[in-house]
Amino acid sequence: MDARLEKPNAGHLPNPAAIADVRLAKFAIGDVVKHRVFAFRGVIFDVDPTFANTEEWWQSIPERIRPRKDQPFYHLLAENDDNSYVAYVSEQNLLPDESGEPVGHPQAPLIFESFAEGHYTLRPRISH
């Protein structure tokens, strides 16, 4: 007899080893965060469960400060005292920004509809 017929869920059960490897992201889309080392902050607009950028980008980071790839990485609408830009940052390098201030990035209003209590809300057409 076919093993799939004996066990109705056979072939549809998640691999227990894969479940153990899943990491939950510490931060959510709309959270305002700041970098642990560098003087910038930003609002999260996307999250990768593990590193998903180019190897060239990875190699450009000095080895002594290069983060692990096996952690969430966040896409930020970032700002510092001089510029607004998009940043890609590992979870280990982010802290909550507790200033309560909105991010002044010019693209924030295109993605988010409101800011309240330190958190942005996505525009409905962009929500997952």
UniProtKB/TrEMBL annotation:
Domain Hemimethylated DNA-binding intervals: 24-123
InterPro entries with a match to the protein in the record: Clp_protease_adapter_ClpF (IPR053189), Hemimethylated_DNA-bd_dom (IPR011722), Hemimethylated_DNA-bd_sf (IPR036623)
An example molecular function term from Gene Ontology annotations: DNA binding
Species name: Phenylobacterium glaciei
Domain of life the protein comes from: Bacteria
Pfam families: YccV-like (PF08755)
PANTHER family noted in UniProt: HEMIMETHYLATED DNA-BINDING DOMAIN-CONTAINING PROTEIN
Xref: SUPFAM superfamilies: YccV-like
Keywords in alphabetical order: Stress response
Name by which UniProt lists this protein: Heat shock protein HspQ
NCBIfam families (alphabetical): yccV
Record bears the keyword ATP-binding: no
